[in-house]
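User: Before I run my own analysis I want an independent prediction to cross-check against. Here's the chain; please return only the structure tokens and, at the end, one sentence I can use as a sanity check.
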Amino acid sequence: MKKLELPDYTDFFYDYLSVNYPQIASDRQFIHDRNILAQETFLSTMKRCNDYDLANELAIDVLLKDYKFSKFYCVLDVLFDEYQALFSKDVLKNFALQFMPECEPIFEKYTLSDDFLRQPALMDLKHELKSFIRDKMNEYWSFSI
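Assistant: Structure tokens:
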């Protein structure tokens, strides 16, 4: 029987965190620990049913557990929708990082979870964020002129 080579999810998870959770993307121990959990899930699934695709899918679910919905990416998405013609991606990322603490009271109104991306309330959240961010941008630019 051929020895099973375990996938390494480290780079995938680092890239995912860099986009969605930049504040924790540099936590190497966290990424390492999640990679181990994902590999263990992969291995146990392969032993149970020998289905590579299922094993990989379940491993990624474990890897991303509690990190599928990203507040940061939600704010960044709103900024892209509204301001991508005016600012570069890097500038918008910096704005998103700056706005995160001030957006927290808006996020607290919602029950956020991994499946929030499939909830109708996501549109309400984005609408609230859009209004808030528009006000903040107007405030910023009116003071800087």
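Sanity check: DSSP finds six helices and no strands in the chain.
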